[in-house]
Structure formats: C-alpha cells, structure tokens
Specification:
By secondary structure, the chain is α/β, with parallel strands linked by helices. The chain is built from ten helices and ten strands. The chain has a single domain, classed as 2-enoyl-CoA Hydratase, Chain A, domain 1.
Amino acid sequence: MAPPVHAAAQASGITTLTLDSPANRNALSSALVAALRAALATAAADPGTRAVVLTHTGTTFCAGADLKSPCDPADFLALLREIAELRVPVVARVTGHVRAGGLGLLGACDIAAAGPDSSFALTETHLGLAPAVISIPLLPRLDPRAANRYFLTGERFDAAEATRIGLLTLHTGPGEDLDQALRPVLDGLRKAAPRALAETKALVTAGLRAGLAEQGPRLTELSARLFASDEAREGITARFERRDPSWAR
C-alpha cells in the first residue's frame, strides 16, 4: 500500500509534503496522521529546511475525519501541536476542497493559500459532532461573526470568503497561478536566518501553542464523547447511506 504522505526532496530550502490518500479524500485516518507527523519531524530535522509546504493530490486537500476509521483525537491534537511547535513555518497550498478537521490543519499552518477551485465547510454539526479540537487554531484566526455562522450552520464557502474571514492568508482567482502567488512568500522564508526564523515563529505561535496545551485535553475528550454518541452514529450512517439524518427538517 502506498504511503498516505509523500515528501519531496528539499529544494532551495523548501520541503514539500503531499497528502496522497485518494481512497478517502485525504481524510484524517490513523495512517495519514501518523505519516504526516513523521514527515514533519524528518523535514524539521534537516538543517537546510527553511519551510514546509503542505499540499495534496486530487481534488480534496482534506475531507476531515475518516468516518470509517477515525484517528484518535489525541493523535490529531498531537499533530496540531507539532505543526505549531515546528522550528520552521508550515505553508498550506490548497487547490481543492477542505472539510471539517481539514480546516484545523489550515488553522495550525503559519500561512495558508488556496486556488479558485477550493471550497471550505465545517460540516460537523450535520454529522452529530462539533468542531472541538480544531476550534483551538481556528477561533483566534477567524472573524467572530463568521466563526459563529460557519461553525453552527456547516455552510460551504469559497476561497475569497475564506481569506476575508481570516482562514486563508491569500487566494488566487480564475486564471491566476497559485505557485506564482506563493513565490514571494517562499522567497522571503528562504532569506530568513534559521535561528531568527525559529524564534520569530515561536513568537507568532505563542497563543496557539498555549491554547493547544491548555484546552486540548478537554476538547479531545469532548470530541471522543461526541463520536460515540447516538447522534453521531445516526449522522455518520446517514452520510454513508446518502440520506438526511433523522433530525433534519
């Protein structure tokens, strides 16, 4: 079986990690989370690495939790902490759809960019769940009114809206090249002195790291409890059966 995360050789200070689990649309399975944690650690251990670019194959960056075989919420929390604590910046490069827990990955990344074909939705409430652990990296970044709306309703929104509300750093429109838009960002990171870059990342992630440490255990427990609930069983079953859940009106 092919690994769910591929690491490209470090090129000019940039290591690219590619989520590549097409069978489940790069959902957060135990295998993908473990592979991504290992790949991040390997990239950070290379003294030549100035930044990690996190991207994907296919039309979905990350579909959220693998509903057939979800990862342990504690392992997902550990992944978010490792992104925040990594000595180098992590840049998300998105050209497809992002759902639920996938938005948590974006929130943990230092910089996030997306193309015009991307879309976003926090679909947890439709499944009998809540965006528990991912609220830690997302809420400090998002416009509060937008967070209320999209956390509660599960509505889909596009890259322009994602940038407006603070989820994305930048986005490109139709006909624009996402890699070209990211070029000045990556050039700036390449020019940074390694220790200065690490210390500056520590400054800008201080609040996120504190939030993950302080709130993580409580929200991990909430996530596990909701996944085991009757509502979640109904919501997930309805999703697989392609029908509305019993509570839908």
